[in-house]
Design brief:
The chain is α/β, with parallel strands linked by helices. The protein has helices at residues 2-7, 12-17, 76-84, 131-144, 159-165; strands spanning 22-27, 32-36, 56-63, 68-75, 88-93, 101-106, 109-116, 119-127, 153-157, 171-176.
Length: 179
């Protein structure tokens, strides 16, 4: 992976020039679990349901304002790549990004994070057979939380999902994958 990125004329120079400063890497497709902040002190607390494998490392972010600990998995290659370039970095996930509303659909997993006035009110992941399932889950959460459909939802997914959601909610396509 690192050789492919380093050889890429668009990404390689960006990473090499980032050595002079800090980089915040937000991983959008990482499995995560939200725990009460008290678990931060629990050494070796097992998070087996994240289905960690030898190619992943478990990281954690404390969201002080929300009083929660977010544990998530990241591919080891990401950490190794940043280290190879000597980049000072911090890896976070969707919950730590501070975005008010974000939905990400990747590999049949929908991650949905909702904040209101900066406070975390919803964070979950759903198994989806396709885009229609993802739209169903998102609209169900909007209904259950009585969310305003005019507040933008950032979509990190396919154009198909953002186009279908646009029929129901204000969509801001922030990252388009698998177009």
């Amino acid at each position: 992976m690192s050789s492919a990125i380093a050889a890429n004329p668009l990404l390689g120079p960006e990473l090499q020039s980032a050595q002079s400063g800090d980089v915040l890497v937000t991983v959008v497709d990482a499995p995560f679990v939200v725990l009460p902040k008290i678990f931060e002190k629990a050494a070796g607390f097992p998070v087996d349901f994240l289905q960690n494998n030898r190619n992943s490392i478990e990281l954690a972010n404390v969201l002080e304002n929300d009083g929660v600990l977010v544990k998530f998995l990241v591919d080891k290659d990401i950490e190794q790549l940043l280290g190879r370039f000597g980049i000072r970095h911090e890896i976070t996930n969707l919950l730590s990004s501070g975005v008010e509303r974000v939905a990400e659909l990747e590999s049949q997993t929908l991650s949905l994070v909702i904040r209101q006035s900066g406070n975390l009110v919803f964070a979950n992941q759903f198994h989806c057979q396709g885009v229609t399932d993802a739209v169903y889950h998102i609209l169900n959460v909007y209904k259950q939380l009585s969310l305003d459909v005019d507040t933008p939802l950032e979509v990190c997914s396919t154009k198909e999902l953002s186009d279908m959601l646009a029929n129901y909610v204000n969509v801001s396509l922030s990252f388009n994958i698998n177009s």
